[in-house]
């Protein structure tokens, strides 16, 4: 328990240093550039203390729970005993199917409940004046992330180079951009960024690194990363596709 | 009783921190009991850590809403009204930089990346070197987000269509990939997704929507978005260039 306490104090001190630059910038702009006193100073100060404490608790919990969780799940689901091969022997890529399913479900379940996605979906249905439904968009993005993580896990297992997938993904996005209804383009690009929340990122990162540690012949420093990149690229593709599809369906019903 | 309790704003926020974790917990429990069929290793420690995560996220977001968000909103508004381009651009850069430096997910990933590079023998395992590598990683990502917001604001002011910039950005990412060391590519691509979570998105969206509302002929719905997209493109380039200095 005392170890936990010293950990917490250490993290608290480094968090303090992280928050100082933000405070300095705010002070500078408010007092020097805008030349105004800070409104609700007391509330702001209490909020600042909350931010520092919260950040420290979160980082400690992340090290004790989120990182180990992703690592343990990857280790269990890809251990030779679980896959059913002898130790050190490499298994064909399809024998890791539970890992793919796990990655798929983690991607889908975390995205469908993601608050920033809910906000974007609301905006999207406003922009498109209702042709894009909120639930339709949320399910589309969640499926995009789920597929992305499953494919990303396959990439780690198979050891194929990451940049080829990203390059192909970019090409698809560029082609889609030419055909997609223009008001939706910026929103679709943004939806790629909002899907990966602060809670999901560490788990997914640990999952990738854990997986590449236990798959024979895979190097965590090179193959362990890339899951988050997939999870930010695929939602763009799925949202553009969804917008295109709804646009197509609407114009068709209009003229038939 | 429960209905009135759940309407309390504080409990509502605590609840939203819980809902972030519930889906993950469900999937993990499902796999552990039905697929792996073994007791979960280190269950006690993970449970305590999860409590810390919920409590931490709750305090963090509550604190942001009390301090940083109202000030950031008011500042973005005041600076666009002031009409000074220099201060507006400086503010945009610093906003992107400072919110990214303190992003919890980035702090975690940078640390993890340092440890892994040291384990793989790519870095001197001396803790000081690893620490410097992680900090440098965070600073280059933060600088890249600062520039991203800067470019995004100029785009809103000039009214350039977003897809030219994004497609140009994709091409640049691919060109840099060809010269970047292999060890950094995965991490660099991931950095794009890491930067845009809890703190950055709400503030940056507020800035974008505020700007496009105050400029004539811009629609907040089509021009206000797109700042986040830049904030996921530029980190890839900056981290790959950062990798060139190390490997």
From TrEMBL, chain A:
Signal peptide: none annotated. It comes from Robiginitalea marina. This is DUF1538 domain-containing protein. InterPro entries: UmpAB. The lineage of its organism: Bacteria, Pseudomonadati, Bacteroidota, Flavobacteriia, Flavobacteriales. The chain crosses the membrane at residues 12-32, 44-62, 97-123, 135-156, 162-180, 192-212, 224-245. Keywords: Membrane, Transmembrane, Transmembrane helix.
Automatic annotation (TrEMBL), chain B:
InterPro entries: UmpAB. Pfam families: DUF1538 (PF07556). Keywords: Membrane, Transmembrane, Transmembrane helix. The keyword Membrane applies. The chain crosses the membrane at residues 21-40, 46-64, 85-110, 135-154, 161-180, 192-212, 224-245. The keyword DNA damage does not apply. This is DUF1538 domain-containing protein.
């Amino acid at each position: 328990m005392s170890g936990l306490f010293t950990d917490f104090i250490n993290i608290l001190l480094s968090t303090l240093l992280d928050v100082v630059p933000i405070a300095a910038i705010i002070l500078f702009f408010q007092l020097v550039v805008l030349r105004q006193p800070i409104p609700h100073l007391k509330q702001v100060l209490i909020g600042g203390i909350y931010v520092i404490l919260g950040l420290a608790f979160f980082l400690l919990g992340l090290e004790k729970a989120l990182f180990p969780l992703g690592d343990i799940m990857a280790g269990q689901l890809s251990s030779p005993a679980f896959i059913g091969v002898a130790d050190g022997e490499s298994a064909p890529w399809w024998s890791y199917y539970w890992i793919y399913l796990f990655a798929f479900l983690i991607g889908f379940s975390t995205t469908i409940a993601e608050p920033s996605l809910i906000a974007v979906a609301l905006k999207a249905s406003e922009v498109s004046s209702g042709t894009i439904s909120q639930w339709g968009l949320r399910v589309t993005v969640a499926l995009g992330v789920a597929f992305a993580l499953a494919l990303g896990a396959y990439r780690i297992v198979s050891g194929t180079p990451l940049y080829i997938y990203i390059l192909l993904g970019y090409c698809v996005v560029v082609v889609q951009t030419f055909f997609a209804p223009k008001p939706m383009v910026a929103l679709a690009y943004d939806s790629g960024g909002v899907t990966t929340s602060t809670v999901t990122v560490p788990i997914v990162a640990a999952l990738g690194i854990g997986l590449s540690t236990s798959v024979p012949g895979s190097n965590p420093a090179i193959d362990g990363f890339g899951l988050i990149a997939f999870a930010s690229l695929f939602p763009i593709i799925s949202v553009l596709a969804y917008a295109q599809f709804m646009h197509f369906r609407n114009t068709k019903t209009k003229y038939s | 009783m429960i209905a009135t309790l759940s309407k309390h704003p504080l409990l509502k926020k605590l609840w939203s921190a819980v809902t972030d974790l519930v889906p993950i917990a469900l999937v993990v429990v499902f796999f552990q009991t039905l697929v792996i069929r073994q007791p979960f290793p280190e269950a006690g420690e993970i449970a305590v850590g999860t409590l810390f995560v919920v409590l931490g996220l709750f305090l963090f977001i509550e604190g942001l809403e009390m301090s940083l968000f109202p000030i950031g909103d008011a500042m973005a508004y005041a600076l666009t009204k002031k009409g000074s381009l220099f201060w507006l651009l400086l503010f945009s850069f610093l906003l992107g930089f400072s919110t990214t430096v303190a992003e919890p997910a980035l702090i975690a990933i940078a640390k993890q990346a340092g440890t892994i590079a040291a384990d793989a023998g790519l870095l001197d395992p001396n803790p000081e070197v690893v620490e410097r590598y992680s900090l440098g990683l965070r600073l280059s990502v933060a600088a890249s987000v600062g520039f991203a917001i800067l470019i995004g604001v100029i785009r809103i002011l000039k009214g350039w269509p977003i897809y030219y910039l994004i497609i140009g950005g994709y091409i640049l990412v691919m060109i840099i990939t060809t010269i970047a060391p292999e060890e950094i590519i995965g991490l660099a691509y991931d950095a794009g997704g890491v930067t845009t979570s809890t703190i950055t998105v709400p503030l940056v969206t507020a800035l974008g929507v505020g700007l496009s509302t105050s400029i004539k002929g811009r629609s907040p719905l089509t021009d206000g978005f797109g700042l986040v997209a830049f904030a996921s493109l530029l980190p890839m380039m900056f981290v790959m260039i950062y990798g060139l200095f190390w490997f």
